[in-house]
Amino acid sequence: xxxxxxxxxxxxxxxxxxxxxxxxxxxxxxxxxxxxxxxxxxxxxxxxxxxxxxxxxxxxxxxxxxxxxxxxxxxxxxxxxxxxxxxxxxxxxxxxxxxxxxxxxxxxxxxxxxxxxxxxxxxxxxxxxxxxxxxxxxxxxxxxxxxxxxxxxxxxxxxxxxxxxxxxxxxxxxxxxxxxxxxxxxxxxxxxxxxxxxxxxxxxxxxxxxxxxxxxxxxxxxxxxxxxxxxxxxxxxxxxxxxxxxxxxxxxxxxxxxxxxxxxxxxxxxxxxxxxxxxxxxxxxxxxxxxxxxxxxxxxxxxxxxxxxxxxxxxxxxxxxxxxxxxxxxxxxxxxxxxx
Length: 340
Known about the structure:
This protein is an alpha/beta fold. It contains 16 helices and five strands.
């Protein structure tokens, strides 16, 4: 059995062939085309796990192909390749579709192979989870329907709806609720020290309060498990930012809050989850939320360990600025804590 099926799209035939040669070390079925229209026909006729596409092509862009691909299969993983370091395209892709990676030409062969391997691994894990967790999907839909009912009769999201979300979170897990309150307070402390505008602070406050709302779809025995998680269990944990995004984005005036929530487990080196977004494309508010979330987690008792001291937690965060956290945010947290 192969690792999966990969579709390669690039209007330059030589580039498409180069991609195939680079990835030939993988045990996969490939189809390469220099015609975007043919690629879309392929997607309708065959099931693909990963699509690798150039951005700039005649008549249709790579982003448009990826959008069409995800209409056909929402779980297909897209990798966008371009010779243009186009920030707007990258942000659009991150916001509009579940883009897996965004890389520029010329690529490094070893990095490309690693990225595609990771995509195939995630795709296969998702397919296994979907087959074995139909009841979990129904649970997500159930909670989304409950939350929708809270906001059906209001023109904009009001304080009653926000309180209802918090009550839902508290009913699911009081420890997660209390953690969210503390994370919101820490986020405000950091934001004040960084001089964040009041309108952005408002978004950050609610993103912090609701950053773990996606955990309503995770079973209690996983959240409360004292021992190490199995791979499939950790996969469910890693999916909670995306579930939170799906829930919050359906509520009026909460789309930006939803995006901050979606990014709160991303890392500046691009090795976070659920989308693996690098520092350049991360919202400042999500960087703040990431630090506040981690600090409170480190300094709180967990089922698998005792709380760390303030000094121990700060040391871990500072070490993490090499790969995970924005150093400006960590320094702002330290400054705020010292002023208390």
